[in-house]
Amino acid sequence: MPRQRNTDPMWWHGRFRGCGYRITAPREAILDVLSKSDKHLSAEDIYVKIHARYPAIGLTTIYRTLDLLTNIGLIFKFDFGDGRARYELVKGPKGKTHHHHLICTNCNRVIDYTDFIDDEIELIEQTEKKLLRKYNFKTTSHLTQFYGLCEKCQ
């Protein structure tokens, strides 16, 4: 499912201020690249997209900024088993789009899965209720990844 394509950065300004951070060119550039992408980008992918426009922003700055953005909850960091961390926005300018990932173990293709059926939603809700009862653990989010072979690799 494609992300909302809105380059208005106002939706994340409050998060920076609330955490006591300034809005800098590298931070803005990375969020802009992620908001315009419908792929799960690595730090190197982001660097390539930013470097042409901002040659002074180095790969070290990209990594450091991605860590900060992950820590303050603006982006997710994923490990899809290909040896490279991948990133995506937690939510777009128009809100959160929850999805799971289908990861092909042969070609490393990642498919965003949003077609939840009622049984899946019920199972997650039941699991969250049991975790709350058994461990007094209130779930605020979850990450589900399915590994297997995509249609092309089967």
Which descriptor suits the 3D outline?
globular
Report Rg. 17 Å
Helical content stands at 25-40%
Major sheet: 3 strands, mixed
- Total domains: 2
Strand order of the largest sheet: 4-3-5
CATH topology value of the largest domain: Arc Repressor Mutant, subunit A
Percent of residues in β-strands: 5-15%
Mean pLDDT: 84
What distance lies between the first and last C-alpha atoms, to the nearest angstrom? 23 Å
Report the CATH architecture of the largest domain: Orthogonal Bundle
Name the quaternary structure.
single chain
Determine the number of helices (DSSP H or I, runs of at least 4 residues): 5
Specify the CATH class of the largest domain: Mainly Alpha
Overall description:
There is one protein chain. The protein is an alpha+beta fold and 154 residues long. It folds into two domains: 1-95, Arc Repressor Mutant, subunit A; 98-154, Dna Ligase, domain 1 (2-Layer Sandwich), CATH 3.30.1490. 40% of the residues lie in helices and 15% in strands. It is built from five helices and five strands, in the order ααααββββαβ. It has helices at 10-19, 25-35, 43-51, 59-71, 118-135; strands at 75-79, 85-89, 100-104, 110-113, 145-148. The chain has a three-stranded mixed β-sheet, with no helix packed on it. Strands 1-2 form a two-stranded antiparallel ribbon. Helix 3 (43-51) crosses helix 4. The chain is globular and about 50 Å long. The two termini are 23 Å apart. Residues 1-7 have low confidence and may be disordered.
